[in-house]
Amino acid sequence: MQRTESPVTPPVVLTIAGSDSGGGAGIQADLKTIEAGGAFGTSAVTSVTAQNTAGVQGSHLLPTEDIAAQIRAVLDDFDVAAVKTGMLATGDVVDLVVERAGDLPGLVVDPVMVATSGDRLLAREAEDAYEELVAESAVVTPNADEAAVLTGRDIDDPDDAAAAGRDLVEMGADAALVKGGHVPGDAVVDVLVTAETTTTYRHDRVDTDATHGSGCTLSAAIATRLAHGDDLRSAVASGIDLLSRAVRYNLDVGDGPGAVHHTVELRDAAAREETSEAVESVVAALTGNELAPLVPESGMAVAAATPYAERPDEVAAVDGRVTLTMAGPRPNHGVRFGAEPELARSLLAVRERDPSRRFAVTCRLPDDTALDALDGAVASVADSEREADATPEARVETAFEGFEGSPVAVVDPGAVGVEGRLLVLADGAATVTERVETILEHTEQ
């Protein structure tokens, strides 16, 4: 039988950039990010680099007419919704893009000058040529070093970044996103400047050197959201959120620092069903036991985070918890993401120390005999955080103070009006089930 086709029509994004043989940056990073964001990626290669996670070993610039032919081929055939530029290498290539700028909608200019490894990717004489390209951009996305070259300002803090952004807007850019990754501090502060507003985006710095491809990924993500029709602020916020997660859950490949995880959000979304089913499997296993001694008065919460979870709505849990009924312990409802925000916040706080901890079950606080039976160390919330209004994050943080490694459970003794509990932790469904059953076995019935 001949089947009927059912084509889809994603928005098209064009990237004009260099090729990275290591796959972490350049055209390769752009296309991965664009496709993961639900758009169709097209490309015009400007340079072919011999590159990996350790650095750039060599590059070959394509003739300008060949780059122009690639751009023309894409624009003649595709309805391009957004364009991003990366490594342009020389003034002639920058001038070429300026000449075609009227045909390049939603132009995101990432003024690539130096690779993450420190290798130079733009001829010094080409720096001045960028001013005209900046003037054609919907948004220009320099890091602090690139913004300093473009504006002549030293950028040491967010105020300097905002001033540089205003300079770039005065050059003609519709907007400038001055990235804070190269500015020292515990937090990364990115600053978006338009003619009307200045917006800052703050996120905690990830303790890693695996940032290869970060600039390419961010600019490609912004272009992809613009292609979907997002307004600029939403597109930038979405791109920054993606990059923050992509850096934290980076790809440990190569002998160098590694690359950012371009498809991290797509992978995380794909894991939601599996995560939900895993919670169901834990509930099914536990409710087959005489579980009553471990069920808190408020009910037993069972939850699991997706592999790359960053928010409470990315933690699946039993809606209404497991409670005691005449027929024994039973879940009140099914599994739902965001069903247990307090437990989700506790689990995410644990994952700040050990991201492999994905599963959590809350039990009635058992005696020391049961705790001693656990194969692993147990942490305890400090006395100072026993107040009823202490946040889940604060309770977990005090439990980890002075604690080496990662605990298998956290004792929360509770407070006035707050029931004590044991937070059982594990990397997998089978392990968290086994730990709860071990506690149950050593608890007086």
Automatic annotation (TrEMBL):
Pfam families assigned to the protein according to its UniProt record, in alphabetical order: Phos_pyr_kin, ThiN
Recorded superkingdom: Archaea
Record's keyword annotation contains Kinase: yes
Domain Thiamine-phosphate synthase ThiN: 279-437
Alphabetized UniProt keyword annotations: Kinase, Transferase
Enzyme class (EC, first level): transferase
MF terms (GO), sorted A to Z: hydroxymethylpyrimidine kinase activity; phosphomethylpyrimidine kinase activity
All residue ranges annotated as the Pyridoxamine kinase/Phosphomethylpyrimidine kinase domain in the record: 20-261
Entry's EC annotation: 2.7.1.49, 2.7.4.7
InterPro entries cross-referenced by the UniProt entry: Aldolase_II/adducin_N_sf (IPR036409), HMP/HMP-P_kinase_dom (IPR004399), PM/HMP-P_kinase-1 (IPR013749), Ribokinase-like (IPR029056), ThiN (IPR019293)
Claim: Iron is one of the keywords in the record: no
PANTHER family per the UniProt record, alphabetical: HYDROXYMETHYLPYRIMIDINE_PHOSPHOMETHYLPYRIMIDINE KINASE THI20-RELATED, PHOSPHOMETHYLPYRIMIDINE KINASE
Name under which the protein is recorded: Bifunctional hydroxymethylpyrimidine kinase/phosphomethylpyrimidine kinase
Gene from which the chain derives: thiD
